[in-house]
Amino acid sequence: MPAYKAPLHDIRFLMNEVLDYPAHYQTLSNGEAADADTVDMILEGAADFCENILSPLNQSGDEEGCTFNNGEVTTPKGFKEAYDQFVQGGWQGLSFPEEFGGQNLPQSLNLIKSEMMGTANWSFQMYPGLSVGCMNTILQFGTEEQKNLYMPNLVTGEWSGTMCLTEPQCGTDLGQVKTKAEPLADGTYAISGTKIFISAGEHDLTDNIIHIVLARLPDAPAGTKGISLFIVPKFLVNADGTIGERNPVSCGSIEHKMGIRASATAVLNFDNAVGYLIGEPHKGLHAMFTFMNTARIGTAIQGIAHAELSFQGALPYAKERMSMRALSGKKDPEKVADAIIHHADVRRMLLTQKSIAEGGRAMIYYAAQIADKMADALARGDTAAFEAHDDHLGFYTPILKGFLTELGYEAANHGMQVYGGHGYIKEWGMEQIVRDSRISTLYEGTTGVQALDLIGRKVLLTSKGKVIRDYTAEILKFCGQHARNKYMRRFAWDLTKLCAQWNALTVRIMLAARKDRDIVSSASVDFLMFSGYVMMAYFWAQQAAVASAKLASGEGQEVPEFYKAKIKTADFYFERMLPRTQGHAEAMVNPSKTMTSLAPEHFSFDY
C-alpha cells in the first residue's frame, strides 16, 4: 500500500498563489483567526496525523474489515485508538462555533483537512465525515434546545452522526420513503422503519450516534412533499446532556462490500424509536439537502483523494521498475532495461493521474471558498446572501461529484495498470484503491443522477441556460486578460471556443427537448462530462498562468521544477485530456431514439 505523503506544496500553491485564500479569509466574519501561522499549523498537524496515524491503518483495515456480532459492530484494529487521537486533537470541531466547543474557523479548512484524511485512509474518514452533515443540519434547522443538547458532543467528536435516507425499496427516489413517524403525547415521535446503506450507522468509535432520519407523518401528502426530518439518537440524551437509556434503534447487519471495508455500512431497524422533529413538518427534504450538499462535496473529494494516492503509489514504482528500452534510445544504459517511466504510455497514465488530482483539487478548493461564504452568511443571518451562494455552489456540486469521481476511478485504474500484473496483487495495495474508489460514483447520487440534476434542474429548468452563460462569461473574462500572453494565448483560445460550444450545446438540447423529452436524460452524462472537462481546463489555465508568471518574474526560482511541472501538466491536460470534450459534444446532441427505440422486452440475453 502506498505510504501517503500530504502534498503540502501543492495545497499551499492553490491556497496562497492561485485562489488567494488570505484575501478570501479577510472577507469572512470568522476569517481573522485563519491567519498564516494558524493555517500552517493546521496543515502541518493534519499532515502529521494523516501520514503517521491514518495511512498505516489503510491496508490493514481493508484486510480485517468490520465485524458484526449480535447488533454490535467492531472496527478494525487501531481504528479506535486513531479516533481517540482525532478527538484529542480537536479536529472535528475545526469549523464549528466556539459556543459548542469548536474553533470557528472557515469551512474550507475542514474540507482541506478532510482531503488529507480521506487520501490517507478513506474508510476512517467516513466516520467523522458523516457527522459534519449531521451537525450542519442541526445548526441550520434545529431549535436552540436541540443545538445545545447535541452539538457540544458532536463538535468534540465524542458522538458521531449519520444520515438515514435509503430504504430497501428506494434510493434516489425518496418519494417512496415508507418509514413512519407517529406523534406522541409528549411532543416526540415514534419512528418505525428500515434504512439501508447507512455509512457509519453502527460502530465502536463513539459513545453515541445521532441519526438524522427521513420519515412520514400520518397526515403526510404523497411523494417528496410529505417527508419530514427527525433526530433519532442511538442512546437518548438527558436534559443535562448525559447519555440515557438505549433507543430502540438496532443494527440488523452490515454490508459485505467491494471496497472501503473498514467503514461499516449498516442496515438500521427503527422499532418505535424516539425521534424529535427537526425543521418544519413535511419539509424534511429541503433540510436534508443541507446534508446532501455537504456529503456530495465530501464525495467529490474522494475522487481526487484516490487519484492522488494512486499517483503516489505509481510514480516511485515507475521510476524503479525496469522493462524494455525506451523507443527514443537507452535511458539507463548501465542496466539491463530502462525504467518504465521512460515509456510514453506510462507517462500518459502518470500525467493523467497527476492532472486529475491537481486539477480536481483546484476545483474543490474554489468550491470550498463558496462554502465559506455560505456559512458566513448563515452566521450573520443574511438569508439572501446565503441563498445566492447556495445557488452558486449548487451549480458546482453535480459537476464536482459526478465528474471528479468518474475521473478518480479512472486514475485509480491507471495506477494499478502501471504496476502491470503486480497491480492485481493485494500486497501492493493498488487494487484496494480501485475497489475503494468504485463506490464514489454511486453513493450520494450516481453519476446519472448528478447529470440529470445539472442539466435538468440547474441548467434547463431553473435558469433556462443562464447559469452556463454566467459561468462562461467568467471564463471569457479570464481569457481576455491573457489573450496577449505568448504562452497563455493558446489556452485562452481553446477555452474561448469551448465556451461558445458549451452555450450552443445548451441551446440545442433546450430546443430539441421540446419535441424529444428523453434527450435531456440521454444527453445528461455527456453534458456533465463536457462541463467537467471545460471547468477543469479553466482551473488548469489559472494554475499555468500563475506558474508561468512566477518563472518569468524570477519569483519561482527557489523551486523552479514545481512551477515547470505545473506548466507541463497543464500542457498535457489541454492536449491529451481536453479533446475528450468533442466526443461528448457529438454524442449529446444525437436524438434519444437509439436509446429508446428498443422495447424493454427486446433487452434479452436469451431469445
From TrEMBL:
Residues 163-272 form the Acyl-CoA oxidase/dehydrogenase middle domain. One of its GO terms (molecular function) is oxidoreductase activity, acting on the CH-CH group of donors. It catalyses: 3-(methylsulfanyl)propanoyl-CoA + oxidized [electron-transfer flavoprotein] + H(+) = 3-(methylsulfanyl)acryloyl-CoA + reduced [electron-transfer flavoprotein]. Keywords: FAD, Flavoprotein, Oxidoreductase. Residues 473-598 form the Acetyl-CoA dehydrogenase-like C-terminal domain. Residues 39-158 form the Acyl-CoA dehydrogenase/oxidase N-terminal domain. Residues 283-457 form the Acyl-CoA dehydrogenase/oxidase C-terminal domain. Belongs to the acyl-CoA dehydrogenase family. This is 3-methylmercaptopropionyl-CoA dehydrogenase. The lineage of its organism: Bacteria, Pseudomonadati, Pseudomonadota, Gammaproteobacteria, Moraxellales. The gene is mmgC_6.
